[in-house]
Design a protein that fits this description.
By secondary structure, the chain is α+β, with helices and mostly antiparallel strands. The chain folds into 2 domains: about 5-170, Sandwich (Jelly Rolls), CATH 2.60.120; about 175-215. The protein has helices spanning about 10-20, 50-65, 70-75, 175-195, 200-215; strands at about 5, 25-30, 40-45, 45, 75-85, 90-95, 100, 105, 110-115, 120-125, 125-130, 135, 145-150, 155, 160, 165-170.
Length: about 220
């Protein structure tokens, strides 16, 4: 399941990210954290893990994990790692799949949080490979895109301006992407029925089903 989520970050957090992004001394070659295959295709910059950056990442991690839609769709157990990434003109990231293990944990859900408005730069689309076609994404500042970590994806070359994003990886309580999607569909149905007083019985059955599926599938 590929899911755009709006309003993940507050304007204040976005401003802090942009301010840090203007400090060239903070950024290093993005290949420093890439695996052997990705190193051949990665051409961007990323912020060094300074105390200031880490404090910001902690705040952003809390905001993302506390977002209702992210909770329902990703069922995050933890955010394993996040990076503040910058793509200046000519930079790109070729087709790759994210590492299956990071810091000793399985990656289930990848996410990109967009930090500047799409009209401020040309190119830089995040392109995700699906069985039927490739899908490009370029979202408003503060919005996130969630997608399974086992998908092939790439970032198109930036031809004007600067692309600024946060990228990160989650371990989910639910390992299987199809199971996560089914639980998300249940959540959506539950939300719809909560405002229908004459559907109390159906709501109770859905809540029971959700709880029992979580007991079957969750890895705590």
């Amino acid at each position: 399941m590929i899911l755009p989520v709006t309003g993940v970050l507050s304007p204040d957090l976005i401003k802090i990210c942009r301010r840090l992004a203007s400090d060239d001394t903070l950024f290093v070659d993005g290949r420093s954290t890439a695996g052997w295959y990705a190193k051949q295709h990665k051409h961007n910059l990323q912020a060094r893990p300074t105390a200031q950056v880490q404090k910001l990442m902690d705040q952003i991690s809390s905001a993302i994990q506390g977002h209702e839609l992210v909770q329902a769709a990703a069922r995050p157990k933890t955010i394993i790692r996040m990076l503040l990434s910058r793509y200046d003109e000519g930079m790109h990231y070729g087709t790759h799949v994210d590492d299956a293990l990071m810091d000793g944990q399985r990656t289930d859900v990848s996410f990109t949080v967009f930090l500047n408005e799409p009209e401020t730069y040309d190119g830089g689309e995040l392109v995700i490979d699906e069985p039927s076609a490739e899908r490009p994404f370029k979202q408003a500042a503060g919005s996130a895109l969630l997608y399974p970590s086992n998908t092939l994806h790439r970032v198109m070359p930036v031809t004007r301006g600067r692309r600024l994003v946060l990228v990160g990886w989650m371990r989910s309580l639910i390992r299987d992407p199809a199971q996560r999607e089914m639980l998300f569909d249940l959540e959506r149905s539950i939300t719809q029925l909560r405002s229908a007083p004459d559907q109390a019985e159906a709501l109770a059955l859905l809540l029971k089903t959700r709880s029992n599926l979580l007991r079957m599938w969750a890895e705590d």
